[in-house]
Write a structure and sequence with these properties.
It contains no helices and 22 strands.
Length: 239
Amino acid sequence: MGSVSATASTCVAGRYSTAGSGSCTVCPRGYYGATADLTTSTCSGPCDPGTYGLVTGMTVATCSGNCSIGYACPAGSTNAITVLCPAGTYSLGGAGECTLCSPGLYGSTAAMNRSSCNGSCVAGYACPAGSVSSTQTPCPAGTYSLVAAGECTNCTAGRYGFYVTWSSASCSGLCSGGYFGNVSGLRSATCSGACPAGYACPAGSTNATANMCPAGQYSGQGSASCSLCPVSWRGAACL
């Protein structure tokens, strides 16, 4: 005998029926049905990101449970290892997507399951987020980095870095006496250039005209210090 009502058969949670259907169908893997009387094959929707639906007929948004550590499960996943987290990323379990290793860290292997990844970047190198090697980016001349740096840092004004991969803020050392370095990131001992005549630039100077020679003293271009005027000198040269 046929049904006498359009709603004679109620589909329970975890099942659905479409218009004209004579029976209920279980919600597919990767989806769940939280309520009765669902009318679409997407049921209540896909399993939440970070979870998976291994079997049909799920009734809660977390479906079969959390995604495995080292893997990611986008919404609607059907197994706990849907997406393998590649090198440079990690997941702690229950993740909808893999997370990049933080700046200053690196992850050289896939399926990383800790936020510290494989460890810290080596001094003299920079590891941007998602790095796969402890020596990901060599710091160029004029820069340096300490351990676990996400980026290289310019050698400070008054200093220079001649070589790559410096691992100390001292870089190669101070700008040579008689020269000045008024910007960071310089690469040679002559830095920004020679100090002008009439001024002294001790090693590490950051200003070309900070030390004017006093009366009775003089200097030529590129001098680290002022000199006393000889007694025999007369005229404007040492006034």
